[in-house]
Amino acid sequence: MNKLYFFLLLCIVISCKKEEKIIPVKKTTPLPSIIQTDERKIQLDTSLIGSFKSENLQKFYIASNNETVWGDLKKRTFIIDELKKSETLGLNPNDYNIKKIEDFEKKINKLDDTDLALYDVLLTYNFQKYLTHLYKGKLNPKKLYNDWDLNDKPFDVNTILIKAFNDNDLDLAIEKSQPKTYTYKRLLKSLELINKFPDDDIKKIEIKDKVTLHDTSNAMISIKKRLLYWNDLSSRDSLTSIYDTKTFEAIKKFQTRHGLAADGVIGQGTINALNFSKIKRKQQIIANIERWRWFSDTLSENYFIINIPDYSLNVIENKDTTIVRKIVVGTNSRKTPILTSTLKSVVFNPTWTVPPTILKEDVVPAMKRNRNYLKNKNITIYNKANSVVEPNDWNENSPGNYRYVQSPGSNNSLGLMKILFPNNHSVYLHDTNHRNLFGRNNRSLSSGCVRVENPLELAQHILDSNNWSKERIDSVIVTKKTTSVKIAKKYAMYQWYWTAWSEKNTLQFRDDIYNLDSDLYAKLRN
């Protein structure tokens, strides 16, 4: 009997072992050793390194056998200079303990072993931090916003730093740590440009009514001074209260740079832009530099890129802009989310299911006023059994028990087509039944999805690899039958947010429609 029990127990053990999952151990490439040529080396106490609570710092000094590494004056000087001028890259020298580092350097020859060890670790820790900030920003957008879905940007700072150290080329570490995208470079250029402007002490400009060409206004002299300051107006010979032709052209230039309707009419939007001081614009640029570091370091070969505050969509293929479209984006209360994804399919003649937010805030109040509200919009009500519910039988006290579906057609809220891409916010690109909105300057008007101007032309372009011609698309549209087409060509989708950059050595700004810039700058300098 004992033998039988032992046999059964052995079978159970063997069976359990067969079901155990073997978890592979993730192999990491060991860091190369740090090549040191310094005469004075100090053995570091591991408790000193550990006090900084940085895994990257610990790994760095393992590669140096826990010895000091910054005995070379040239290397130390490089780091100190970089940290001091970090402002030119939108960062803050105070984040890198620059004052303490400079104090140590001034008395380098008088430092005992304890202070020399601390100085060495401070240099490494703060230079690592600086490189990391250059690569992916100081702040984590996922901790700031709940509607920003960006891919993580892992950064192996030691691989870059140790190679640069061993090659005596720390410049290379700076270069490799920064985004390579053209927009990032234009943001750095915009910071350089605005730093060349003198300090300003502006007084708020106010107008009661719009000012048009040849009008006389008490505000005109102040307006002209602002245009002169920003180099939109070239001469001071028109500093009068008359809105003359030269100033009219300068206003249009200013309006273009700020994404305003370049009609020369001085309204409140133009005045608001004129009332921005140099320091506020500089802060806006710095906030945008930080924001851009959160985005992808490299872009796909083919992609859609949406700049939400610019109300623009650009299609880039093989580094060439092939399509530019005006778009309508979400309001401040129903923001268009920031995300990175991949286009998957085009749906012609889509139906539209009313989402919960619109149901609660728009549909239910309207239905309580008029039971035929949905019927007039060609929206059918379905109950949980998928049966049609007549408007008079709709229970206004339980609106969430129903599904509300709008039939396909040109008056459908999604228009004649939509483009789908995976995301956590149930948003997509689509046509609209309010096509007149593209003529407006402020197009922060949707419920979160992005509406696109002339979408059928866009669909034809991206389905060219699928051999879908204009005629074929038109033939599907007239059927009013919902048809989904998988996109054969791979396009990335970048739905991002930036309000400042430079073009041809000219500053460009856009209205911060979601009020993100000032708050972000404040957090950066906290």
UniProtKB/TrEMBL annotation:
CDD domains: YkuD_like. Pfam families: PG_binding_1 (PF01471), Scaffold (PF20142), YkuD (PF03734). Gene3D superfamilies: L,D-transpeptidase catalytic domain-like, PGBD-like superfamily/PGBD. GO terms for molecular function: carboxypeptidase activity; transferase activity. Pathway: Cell wall biogenesis; peptidoglycan biosynthesis. Residues 302-479 form the L,D-TPase catalytic domain. Keywords: Cell shape, Cell wall biogenesis/degradation, Peptidoglycan synthesis, Transferase. Transmembrane segments: none annotated. GO terms for biological process: cell wall organization; peptidoglycan biosynthetic process; regulation of cell shape. The active site is at H430, C449. Belongs to the YkuD family. This is L,D-transpeptidase family protein. It comes from Flavobacterium shii. The lineage of its organism: Bacteria, Pseudomonadati, Bacteroidota, Flavobacteriia, Flavobacteriales.
